[in-house]
Specification:
Layout lengths: L1 E2 L33 H27 L20 H8 L7 H10 L2 E6 L5 H11 L7 E6 L2 H15 L6 E5 L2 E2 L7 E5 H10 L6 E6 L7 H19 L5 E6 L5 H4 L11 E4 L6 E5 L8 H15 L4 E5 L3 H14 L10 H16 L60 E6 L5 H5 L10 E6 L12 E6 L2 E7 L6 E7 L2 H9 L7 E5 L3 H5 L8 H4 L2 H10 L16 H13 L3 E2 L14 E2 L1 H7 L5 H12 L3 H12 L14 H22 L2 H5 L1 H15 L4 H6 L4 H21 L16 H15 L3 E5 L12 E4 L7 E2 L12 E10 L1 E10 L3 H5 L4 E3 L9 E3 L4 E10 L4 E8 L1
Parallel strand pairs: 2-8, 2-9, 3-6, 3-7, 4-6, 7-8, 10-17, 11-13, 11-14, 12-13, 14-17, 22-24
Antiparallel strand pairs: 1-9, 4-5, 15-16, 18-19, 20-21, 20-23, 23-24, 25-27, 26-27, 27-28
Helix pairs in contact: 4-5, 6-7, 9-10, 16-17, 16-18, 18-19, 19-20, 19-26, 20-23, 20-25, 21-23
The structure holds cytidine-5'-diphosphate and magnesium ion (MG).
The site of magnesium ion (MG) has 3 residues, from helix 4.
EC number: 3.6.4.13
Family: Belongs to the DEAD box helicase family. DEAH subfamily.
Organism: Branchiostoma lanceolatum
Length: 880
């Protein structure tokens, strides 16, 4: 059925792009053809007028079983010869009933939204409808997926269903694909399409783009939809229309349909009604904590032993968990081949995967265009999980049988059924993924242990029971450095319901939630879109790197705060990641700074811009391991045990005092002399990280040396994470986590001071002459860019005695007084050179005549400089 059917003849809006342009990489600009809203409207309305006449024609054609074209749509029905069994199973899919309505809507509207329950046939069937309607004749039908697993698996499925080769129905994911010049239907990740748009904004190779899983609201899907909302009318104007189909598994599509900035007139929504059988939801009485994996195992065992035949689908959070549970189940029950998996073979496998897990290897796709949550456990951050050591007495523990339904009262004859256990997660090779779609061997029970790829991306047939841990891995961003990591968290209510729905596709089913109804009541209704959680600075830089210059006006489905976007742009200009173009083509373009080569280098690093600048410079000077350690350490609030009045009896007090004096002594040693001391608290951090790593980061070492064990382990993880991220994005860097990191040399310490200044340049403070300070409790006060009142170096800093004239700090925290934390000294003459965007420069100074640089063949002249914000006079600099 069509919602908004009155709006079927839709007009595509461009008004909110406000004359903005989307530019291609480099300085060549592919303008949105300077299209104004009015032009666009008129044009599309023009085509609207034709539509109703053509619709009649097309209806006539449809009644004769043929599809007719209007100017903008393909001409010829392309027949597909499907195998009879495929044809039969297709006919069961609810989307088939909507084919005509859907194709009509697509024919008549530039943008159509399709909503249908998971499993209704959207992903596998709509590309086929489009192909048969001739959209693949002169150009490609493109389908984007947020997950690679779906792109690969769906391309294979559609090729098979249509009896076409994989040369015709292909996929492209990052680094891998089987696209050929003959490809007509192309499945790809959204990241791949975004990259293609940088080269060809108008996507001239495609006649239709289908954005699948739009409800997931991944940041790249949102950006794609924003970009495509502008590309579609441009293509219409060029006489080569592009159709956009947005597919969602939920009905919550207002951000796309009711968003005037995106589409002035709401696109029609085609709802696909799905036959869904009732699913009885059972909550656990108590919610397991860390041991939810054991609880999952117990529940699967019980279902298998007590309940009638029917597949079980288990939702876990990541690959390691999936494997652990699969192994354990395979060991506990006869497999479909009739044998228990031999322990010896298993233990070898366990050992092997444990060794693999030790390798400092993390799939850093997490940081790139194709981040997928369930890959995050490929690295050292999580240990391989061995359920064996945790599980006891599963067989006789029947305490909570009453939360199963009545039919479970007595064990069924299925109790001795073999179990056909299959894992499912993003990185599973496609042929192994494919196995979940096949019927299990005769007489066995299918158990699919999956990550949330099985929630909406892939529909697994033959499922009657769902076991839901209620957990998912989500990317969380560090507020300080912007570094992100995946953490396990509760799903939303919408996700939990989606998961439950998987049990009722072919007959009534049951969903066992391994958490209490009280816990469920606290779940968020929907997960907020990723764009709302991502740090704005990082988003702006990433978009600029994608050659999207006008981020402020960008038609996001859910826009970030405009002021925050502007502030982020300003910071990026300050850091030199963006630059205002010298000669803008039009005055509006001048307001939109473009990405610089430094900005491009920074965009590769998965941290916020201040830190990515330090990393980019660290890479340039071969100092990456040090910079990584500093960045990792800065994310952690305090690495030393907190000072203050020791609590407890005299013995404890003496102990605490001992630790404090140890800390003071260590800080002094670690700070050293010369350049090392001038690197100040950053040097202390660096040496603490090095020393702790050398000692194996043990709790004992930390306690003996007054270091917070938790902080040090966090730093350790983050170092590994960043190191791996950098190796992935810059393979030339070849950086590794060195357990024997030597302290930096004098020269290296000096360079590190400069690097830190480059990143934290606006967090600078200058010593105030002593006679100007009324607060005599401090030797020196500082004037900073951050606040009007004077600030002080925190007493715990190693630079309290030195009190250099210029310092940079990591943050100011008010504890009685505004104290600068994590301070390093910088030289005045570096400031105009390293943070030029914070300085103003005079005209060339006459007293200092220009010089000719033989090496570069350029004339250098001298200018005086001022630190703009505070009017400090800076030394003169020579430049072009
Ligand atoms: O996209 P949507 O969730 O609406 O459904 P779909 O992914 O197109 O799946 C339609 C049907 O095809 C489901 O019943 C799947 O189980 C089935 N399918 C399959 O048997 N093998 C595949 N490789 C993919 C889907
Ligand atoms: Mg789908």
């Amino acid at each position: 059925c069509i919602e908004n059917s009155k709006e079927t003849k839709n007009v595509h809006d461009t008004s909110s792009f406000e004359g903005e342009q989307v530019k291609k990489a480099g300085s060549d600009s592919v303008e949105c053809d300077g299209k104004t809203a009015e032009e666009c409207d008129t044009e599309e309305k023009g085509s609207d007028v034709e539509t109703s006449a053509q619709r009649k024609k097309s209806q006539k054609a449809q009644s004769t079983g043929r599809r007719e074209r209007k100017d903008s749509t393909p001409a010829v029905y392309v027949p597909v010869e499907r195998r009879p069994d495929i044809q039969e199973s297709r006919l069961q899919l609810p989307i088939l009933a909507e084919e005509q309505v859907l194709m009509e809507a697509i024919r008549e509207n530039p943008v159509v939204v399709v909503c249908g329950e998971t499993g209704s046939g959207k992903t596998t069937q709509i590309p086929q409808f489009l192909y048969e309607a001739g959209y693949g004749r002169d150009a490609m039908i493109g389908i984007t997926e947020p997950r690679r697993v779906a792109a690969v698996s769906m391309s294979h499925r559609v090729a098979d269903e249509m009896n076409l080769s994989r040369r015709t129905v292909s996929y492209q994911i990052r680094y891998e694909g089987n696209v050929t010049p003959e490809t007509k239907v192309k499945f790809m990740t959204d990241g791949v399409l975004l990259k293609e748009m940088q080269k060809d904004l108008l996507l001239s190779k495609y006649s239709v783009l289908v954005i699948d899983e739009a409800h997931e609201r991944s940041v790249y899907t949102d950006i794609l939809i924003g970009l495509l909302s502008r590309v579609v009318p441009l293509r219409t104007k060029k006489g080569n229309p592009l159709k956009l189909v947005i597919m969602s598994a939920t009905l919550r599509v207002e951000d796309f349909t009711q968003n005037q900035r995106l589409f002035k007139i709401p696109p029609p929504v085609i709802k696909v009604d799905t036959r869904q059988f009732p699913v009885t939801v059972h909550f656990n009485k108590r919610t397991p904590g860390e041991e939810y994996l054991q609880e999952t195992y117990r529940k699967v065992c019980k279902i298998h032993r007590m309940l009638p035949a029917g597949g079980i689908l288990v939702f876990l959070t990541g690959q390691a968990e999936v494997h652990a549970l699969c192994r354990k189940l395979q060991r506990s029950f006869p497999t479909a081949c009739g044998a228990l998996v031999k322990k010896t073979a298993e233990s070898k496998e366990t050992k092997k995967s444990k060794n693999e897990a030790k390798l400092p290897k993390i799939d850093l796709d997490n940081y790139t265009m194709e981040g997928e949550e369930d890959q995050a456990d490929d690295g050292i951050l999580e240990e391989d999980i061995d359920l064996e050591t945790h599980i006891v007495g599963v067989d006789d523990d029947d305490d909570d049988m009453d939360d199963m339904d009545d039919s479970a009262a007595t064990p069924t004859s299925d109790a001795d059924l073999p179990m056909h256990v299959l894992p499912l997660y993003s990185l599973l090779p496609p042929d192994r993924q494919q196995r979940v779609f096949l019927p299990p061997p005769q007489g066995s029970r299918l158990v699919v242990v999956a990550t949330n790829v099985a929630e909406t991306s892939l529909t697994i047939p033959h499922i009657k029971y769902v076991v839901d841990t209620g957990k998912v891995k989500k990317r969380f961003y560090d507020k300080v450095t912007g570094a992100s990591a995946f953490q396990v968290t509760w799903v939303s209510k919408a996700s939990a319901d989606q998961r439950a729905g998987r049990a009722g596709r072919t007959e009534p089913g049951h969903c066992y939630r391994l958490y209490s109804s009280a816990v469920f009541a606290d779940f968020q209704t929907f997960s907020p879109p990723e764009i709302a959680r991502r740090p704005v600075e990082d988003l702006v830089l990433q978009m600029k790197d994608m050659s999207i210059d006008k981020v402020v006006n960008f038609p996001f489905p859910t826009p970030p705060d405009v002021e925050a976007v502007k502030a982020a742009e300003q910071l990026l200009v300050q850091l030199g990641a963006l630059q205002h173009t010298a000669k803008p083509k039009n005055p509006k373009a001048a307001q939109s700074p473009m990405v610089t080569p430094l900005g491009r280098a920074m965009a590769r690093f998965p941290v916020s811009p201040r830190f990515s600048k330090m990393l980019a410079l660290g890479e340039q000077h071969g100092l990456l391991p040090y910079v990584i350690s500093i960045v990792a350490a800065l994310t952690v609030q305090e690495i030393f045990v907190l000072s203050g009045t020791p609590a407890g009896g005299p013995e404890e007090q003496a102990g605490v005092k001992h630790v404090h004096s140890r800390v003071a002594q260590l800080k002094k040693t670690w700070a050293g002399q010369g350049q090392s001391l001038l690197l100040g608290d950053m040097m202390v951090l660096l040496r603490a990280v090095g020393a702790c790593e050398f000692a194996g980061c043990t709790r004992k070492f930390c306690e003996e040396n007054g270091l917070r064990y938790k902080a040090m382990t966090e730093i350790r993880s983050l170092r590994a994470l960043l190191t791996n991220a950098i190796n992935t994005v810059c393979p030339g860097a070849k950086v590794y986590v060195d357990p024997n990191m030597r302290p930096p040399t004098e020269l290296q310490a000096k360079l590190l001071r400069q690097i830190v200044l480059s990143g934290l340049g606006d967090r600078i403070a200058r010593r105030v002459p002593a006679d100007q300070i009324s607060d005599k409790s401090h030797k020196f006060a500082y004037q900073s860019t951050s606040m009007e009142e004077y600030v002080f170096i925190h007493p715990s800093s190693v630079l309290t005695k030195t009190c250099p004239e210029f310092v940079i700090f990591h943050e100011i925290i008010e504890t009685g007084k505004p104290y600068m934390h994590c301070v390093a000294a910088v030289e005045q003459e570096w400031i105009p050179l390293l943070v030029p965007n914070l300085c103003t420069f005079s005209e060339p100074v006459k007293d200092l005549p220009p010089t000719f640089d033989n090496d570069t063949g350029r004339v250098k002249c001298h200018r005086t400089s001022t630190f703009s914000k505070l009017g400090w006079q800076m030394p003169s600099v020579a430049g072009d």
